[in-house]
From TrEMBL, chain A:
It is an enzyme of class 1 (oxidoreductase). [4Fe-4S] cluster 2 binds at residues 247, 250, 270, 276. This is Methanophenazine-reducing NiFe hydrogenase, small subunit. It is found in: Cell envelope. Keywords: 3Fe-4S, 4Fe-4S, Iron, Iron-sulfur, Metal-binding, Oxidoreductase, Signal. [3Fe-4S] cluster binds at residues 285, 304, 307. GO terms for molecular function: 3 iron, 4 sulfur cluster binding; 4 iron, 4 sulfur cluster binding; electron transfer activity; ferredoxin hydrogenase activity; metal ion binding.
From TrEMBL, chain B:
SUPFAM superfamilies: HydB/Nqo4-like. Belongs to the [NiFe]/[NiFeSe] hydrogenase large subunit family. Signal peptide: none annotated. This is Methanophenazine-reducing NiFe hydrogenase, large subunit. Keywords: Iron, Magnesium, Metal-binding, Nickel, Oxidoreductase. Its main location: other. It holds the Pfam family NiFeSe_Hases. It comes from Methanocella conradii (strain DSM 24694 / JCM 17849 / CGMCC 1.5162 / HZ254). Mg(2+) binds at residues 40, 62, 504, 565. PANTHER family: HYDROGENASE EXPRESSION_FORMATION PROTEIN HUPK, HYDROGENASE-2 LARGE CHAIN. It is found in: Cell envelope.
């Protein structure tokens, strides 16, 4: 732990900045023993719960990153103690009563882990409260997921909301009757998030994305486990990954600057006219890229849909409509809005202003909720 | 005695299985999907063009398949299926081929096979030397975590994802499959990287599944010529050493030792796991049908909608085969999408005005919005609906596909199993389902290499997308095969140009369906009937760890996030 905090040649701050700047591979290959030692001291385990979602976050973790998540966890000696998609156990009831022991029964395993406490909790998928506040639109082991989450949250030393559903409700929030929320937010509102609703107050870090990049999770985990106070933005996201607009470093930025814009798919230039929301989406996809650094959405011709943003997906649909032609800029004069986006000073404050206007945020939360 | 598996893990979450045992045999079974998201309701009043990006979020494993089915539904609504450029179809094939292979490997090595390393098998297999050898292999390969096969599979999955990312931008959740074609424009450099990835992927799959033989050698004898070559090959392998190096890759090892018919009945070996006795359908398979929609486009401009797919638009044909071994002696029935209906009798939806079943395009279903109505003890017990083909519940997936294409290895294996003495073994079982998935993984390697080596073209001058725009009042459907089976998207555009009806019937909707209005059980429920808690019958203590039941359900590779769907609240 001390090694990590003070490192031989680096300040702690510089160390964490360096960790975020490189891929998980570079970080883990050089720092795994240090993180492993820190975990051994803290006795932490990883408890991974999945609510209402598509399993895409887990699939993404297995699909990229170098190494993929299981090998990475193994490297830092963090035990994946519960994950319903990957564990050996399953829930077994005989005549209504839980059968066997934690070696075979996942429900017993979960109860034991929750009783012990002290784990890092990863939540994937949204938390539905419907219908009628029962949470029965998502059940596991005859228990609403809402209840499972409420049981597990208090014992967590840190909660990581993985993916846009767990962070903000995401796709799952689009169905009103499901009344689904993220862990600490519902859309841009903290008051509506599960933590506030259920009166819980653990530290929550959001790692959004539909799906999230595996590096974002692994590096956030490494930061958390090494005892860091991860710096987050107004929406609870680590600033290190979600600090600048996709548009800033987009592989097609050159085409944008030369005003070469596509009006049909697969033409090869800037995707702005096809509805690209890269100007409103804050993530390091263009520099980090995906699946071992091969490519990213806009590079392969897919307009960015801003899947890391709290108001995804509803605020960014129709996906293929231009930002200024679809009313998300509210009362702003279209010319002004377009100038902000298209103008030379597209980065920094200008982009933030557009973003707030776009998703109906006053920006006040920025001042309060910045650093956690 | 009632055994309930909830959650059944190592699959997409939310599956609950409940069985009643009498004298050690399952006499009734219920299969419940317990996560409801309502993607189709969310799509109402949205732009039809948004559907591929939206629906690919139904499933993180099958995102490219949902995108493809959705794009096809829009192309069919625009009557534009004949105009989608060849180069777009090749890229869709490659992306879907990679996703498909990845799904099979994840299911086999992270989902299904770990059950074969359950300590129960150690206690049973240790009564013979061969059994001890077998147990050693099962444990070293499939134990979760730490099995060699699992780490090989993870390595392969990463390699596949890297390849998917190059063409798809990222995986899962790639944005490149759009109505009218694809968005990506691979460079020559990209194609070289893909070729490299395919070599790497094939090497791992070959080492894992076949051990000593090459994929080409195996397919040439068993797929191109006949399944009997596989039996001869198995018998020629040394049984003093069951390592991959001696030829006992995962496929031969499984094919030999997970069959009672081959290992015990035919060769009198002292060690076997009788998965060929497990998970068949009662009444000689006749209550069931095998359904496939057809998949992978022929390499040419345009494709025909599935009604005409028998005319040859797809590499893997569409078709329907009724249960019963005699039915594989003639060609598969032509698929009639008009026969597809859904029931909500046992599902948590309000029945529409007394109608028991409806075609997907016409459904007007209302979700149960009372908390008390969601439970397990009433008539309704699942969020999954009950699709039927005509009146027949259908199994869908690798086994159904290989049955409908009359694939040699599977068809010959079923004939051998079914013809064994008078009793016979069921044509569909945990054994044939898993064998089909393995054989299909090998076939995919061959197809992928073909598309990438011969058909994928680089360059900016190539057209990879045509403009499509669904007209108000139009409707369409996109029927394709996903790794788990038949996947259909139905779309209707309202007079305002927005989606007025969207419907998804996913593979697991078929396989994990509850009872229909005629009280017919779904395939997983039927396959559980008559099962015991282990492949060796009842073993003391096995009610708390009923490995036999795990095998049956997991052999279908269920995916609940896909399966649950509804339209209109």
């Amino acid at each position: 732990m001390d090694d990590l905090k003070n490192g031989p040649n680096m300040t702690r701050r510089a160390f964490l900045a360096a960790a975020a700047a490189v891929g998980a591979a570079a970080f883990l290959y050089s720092n795994a023993p240090g993180v492993a030692a820190a975990i051994e001291k803290s006795g932490k385990r990883l408890l991974w719960l999945r609510g209402s979602g598509c399993g895409g976050c887990t699939a993404s973790m297995l699909s990229g990153g170098n190494p993929e998540v299981l090998t990475a966890l193994n490297k830092i000696k963090l035990e994946l103690a519960y994950h319903d998609g990957l564990m050996g156990q399953q829930g077994v009831f005989v005549d209504g009563s839980p059968a066997g022991d934690s070696g075979h029964n996942s429900n017993i395993r979960l109860d034991e882990l929750v009783d012990e406490g002290g784990y890092v909790l990863v939540v994937e998928g949204a938390i539905p409260n419907g219908p009628e506040g029962s949470g029965r639109y998502c059940m596991s082991g005859a228990t609403p997921f809402k209840q499972i989450f409420m049981n597990a949250a208090p014992g967590a030393s840190c909660i990581i909301a993985l993916g846009t559903c767990a962070s903000y409700g995401g796709i799952s929030r689009s169905l009103k009757v499901a009344d689904a929320t993220g862990v600490s937010f519902s859309g841009t509102s903290r008051m509506e998030g599960a933590m506030a609703r259920y009166g819980l107050n653990n530290n929550v870090i959001n790692v959004p994305g539909c799906p999230p990049n595996p590096d974002w999770l692994l590096l956030t985990l490494a930061d958390v486990l090494s005892g860091a106070d991860v710096e987050v933005d107004a929406y609870g996201r680590p600033k290190a990954f979600f600090g600048s607009a996709v548009h800033e470093s987009c592989p097609r930025r050159g085409a944008f600057d030369r005003a070469l814009r596509d009006d049909g798919f697969s033409e090869g230039n800037c995707l702005y006219n096809l509805g690209c929301k890269g100007t409103l989406a804050f993530a390091d996809c263009p520099t980090r890229r995906w699946n071992d650094g091969g490519s990213m959405c806009t590079q392969s011709g897919g307009p960015c849909v801003a899947c890391v943003e709290p108001s995804f997906p509803d605020a960014f649909m129709p996906f293929f409509s231009k930002v200024e032609s679809r009313g998300i800029l509210g009362d702003v004069d279209v010319d002004t809005g377009a100038k902000i986006i298209i103008g030379a000073t597209v980065i920094g404050a200008g982009i933030h202003a557009v973003k707030r206007l776009a998703i109906g945020e006053s920006g006040r939360e920025d001042e309060k909720g910045g650093k956690r | 005695m009632r055994i309930t598996l909830d959650p059944l893990t190592r699959l997409s979450s939310g599956l609950r299985i409940s069985v009643e045992l009498k004298d050690g045999f399952v006499v009734s079974a219920g299969c419940s999907g317990m996560v409801y998201r309502g993607l189709e309701q969310m799509l109402l009043n949205k732009s039809p063009m948004d559907a591929p990006y939206f629906t690919q979020r139904i499933c993180g494993m099958c995102s490219s398949f949902h995108a493809t089915a959705s794009a096809s539904a829009i192309e069919s609504a625009c009557e534009a299926t004949g105009t989608v450029p060849k180069d777009a179809l090749v890229i869709r094939n490659v992306l879907n081929g990679f996703g498909w292979l990845k799904s099979h490997l994840e299911h086999l090595y992270l989902g299904f096979m770990p059950d074969l390393a359950d300590p129960m098998y150690r206690d049973i297999l240790n009564s013979s030397d061969l059994g001890n050898l077998l147990w050693k292999e099962l444990k070293n390969r499939y134990a979760s975590p730490g099995g060699e096969a699992c780490s090989d599979a993870l390595r392969c999955i990463r390699s596949i994802s890297r390849a998917e990312g190059i063409l798809g931008g990222r995986s899962p959740g790639s944005p490149v499959i759009v109505p009218g074609g694809v968005t990506s424009r691979p460079t020559r450099g990209d194609i070289y990287v893909l070729k490299d990835c395919v070599e790497d992927i094939k090497a791992i799959v070959q080492k894992r599944l076949l051990g000593a033989l090459s994929i080409e050698e195996w397919l040439e004898s068993t797929h191109d010529n006949g399944g009997e070559h596989a039996f001869k090959y198995l018998e020629s392998l040394s049984r003093d050493d069951l390592s991959e190096e001696k030829g006992w890759g995962d496929l031969p090892l499984f094919m030999m030792f997970c069959s009672r018919m081959l290992a015990k009945d035919t060769l009198s070996l002292p060690a076997y796991i009788g998965l060929d006795e497990l998970g068949g359908y009662p009444l000689d398979d006749q209550l069931i049908g095998f359904l496939s929609y057809g998949s992978f486009y022929q390499v040419r401009d345009g494709y025909a909608p599935v009604e005409d797919s028998q005319a040859g638009s797809f590499v893997l044909p569409a078709g329907f085969t009724p249960g019963g071994l005699q039915n594989i002696n003639s060609a598969a029935d032509r698929l009639d999408p008009g026969l597809i209906v859904e029931h909500v009798y046992a599902s948590f939806y309000e029945d529409g005005e007394g109608r028991t079943s409806e075609a997907p395009m016409d459904e007007e279903t209302v979700t149960v919005e009372k908390a008390d109505a969601i439970g397990y003890d009433g008539i309704k017990y699942s969020f999954i609906k009950a699709p039927r083909y005509g009146r027949v519940p259908c199994e869908t997936g690798p086994l159904a596909r290989l049955i409908n294409s009359r694939e040699n290895l599977i068809v010959d294996t079923m004939r051998k199993l079914g013809g064994y003495k008078s009793a016979g073994y069921p044509m569909a079982s945990v054994y044939t389902r898993t064998l089909a998935r393995m054989q299909e993984a090998l076939l995919l390697c061959r197809m992928l290499q073909g598309w990438i080596d011969d058909d994928l073209e680089a360059g900016d001058g190539i057209r990879r997308c045509v403009h499509v725009s669904p007209k108000p009042g139009s409707s369409g459907r996109g029927l394709i095969e996903a790794p788990r089976g038949a996947l259909g998207h139905w779309l209707r555009v309202g007079d305002d140009g927005r989606i007025s009806n969207y419907q998804v019937v996913a593979p697991t909707t078929w396989n994990a369906s509850p009872k229909c209005g005629e009280m017919k059980s779904g395939p997983i429920e039927l396959a559980l009937l008559g099962c015991q808690t282990t492949p060796y019958g009842y073993v003391p203590g096995s009610e708390a760890n009923p490995v036999g039941l795990y095998h049956v359900v997991r052999s279908f590779d269920p995916c609940v996030s896909c399966a649950v769907h509804v339209i209109r609240g």
